[in-house]
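In response to reviewer comment 3 from the previous cycle, which asked for concrete evidence that the modeling workflow produces usable outputs, we include below a single protein chain processed end to end. The sequence was submitted unchanged, and the resulting structure tokens are shown without manual editing.
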Amino acid sequence: MRGGNDTFVADRRKLLQRMTTLRPNDRNLQRLEIARHYLANGFAPEALGELRLLAAADPAIVETPTFRATRGAANFLARHDAEAIADLSLPALKDDPRVQLFLAAAMARSQPDPARQALTLRLAPEEIKGWPRTLRMELGEVAARTVAGAGDGRGANRIIDAMMGPGLQRRDVGRLSYLGGLASVAGKQYEQAITRFRDAEASDSRPDRAYATRDRIELMLKLGKITPLEAIAELEKMRFAWRGEDFEFQLMKRISQLQVEAKRYGEGLRSMHTLAANYPDHPDIPKVMEMMSEAFTRLFLDGEADKLPPVTAIGLYDEFQELTPPGEKGDEMIRRLADRLASVDLLERAGDLLRHQVEFRLSGLDKTRVGTRLAFLNLSDRKPGLALEALDLSEGPDIPTDLAAQRRYLRVQALDDLGRSAEALALIINDQSEEARRLRGEINWRLKKWPEAVAAMESTIERPFGNRPLDPKMARRVLDTATAMTLGHDERGLARLRRTFGDLMAKTDLREAFDLLTSEPERGIADYRRIGDKVKQVEEFQTFMGDWKNRVKAEGLSSMN
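The workflow returned the following structure tokens.
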């Protein structure tokens, strides 16, 4: 193949002039010669144009080896790899080493595993030396990349040496330096690779500057010469370094990967979201969406969000909640996040998450359980009306006995908070469980019905077996009962309480308060002013809801049921 831009115009003129001297039947072969001339000088579109004219004039020529070889090489040069492969796969061309090089190069450039073509492309130095510059550079680049990608640095360097020759341009120096960097990486000569990449970065070839900078950063990161955060910062500077081919997309994809690996989840997810928005039809978008889902799962299912401030965690969830998967996996994510928010008293936000589950995601017993937790959150957030709504919304058949009782007690609490104490007490009138007795005591306390409060509260305390001490919870209940007796002027009850629990309370941190409330007044006159001051200190007694709140803070919202 003839080539060389210095004589291109003159050679083309001669070929065209000769066309005028030929008979019509002989002009087709001359068109083929013109196409080969265009090809040798790197004018692939012009070569393909001549070949189309030739095929239109003589359809039979399309199946000849010479035509197919020329069109295949032109398609390769035009980066029409599928068409090149179709042309060059003609059985009659299988023994032509040059054709096989073009075929291997087209396949390497277009197929997922280019290393499969490395064996053929290792032979490139024997063929391409002396070729016209454009063909030498185009095929040599694919061959060098492929052989280096297969781990053969020495073979890649031989190809690069063969690419040297007449007609090289200034921008070719950058490409050869970049390919040399790839060859050095393949040969594990990393310092040399960094030097060659830097040479390419200083060249006149904009794409090779961009690729060399990217690969140098990746290599330095791999070698531990820079940190992931430093790599991100360097890659960020390259967003507009080169926008051709697939460079910009792959650069942004890599930045987002590094951001997630560096636990900068918000930045990583936003980068991926931007990619999906800007390149909706890119073939790699399904992979990007998979990466987003994996990052979201790491955050909200694998516990990474627990390492973030709660406000940051819920902000990320709100921003990317469309990534919440359906089914049990998504429900578990929401449960964990609601647990986290409830543990730091972000009750309204936790409630929003659970309400969405109850209204749109769950059914059956799962809906009933989560609705119960939502009711608890609403009560804790002093929204008893919403608590009743949550209970009504999550009602269902065949609710287990324990869960049904829990829901009944929450309804009692909500009704009492709304001032509907009679309805609340009616719900547990025949319930003799400890929880119901405690609730009766609390409701009557708030109603200042001291005899009823004392009766209910005293029924929840008991002296431990043997000489065991009172646990802190039981000691607090004893003190609460003494407080109710004091407020109701029940001196006989106080005396009974002191006889039963006096020795045990003396060994607790509440002994002084208990002594003050239960001690016999001097000269038969109780100092109610002094006692009243002490009652103010203990009046915030241990409530049924208080116990639940402490449990939720310690064990999580899902520990309720």
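The chain has three domains: 1-168, 227-313, 421-560. We consider this sufficient to address the reviewer's concern, and the full set will be provided in the supplementary archive.
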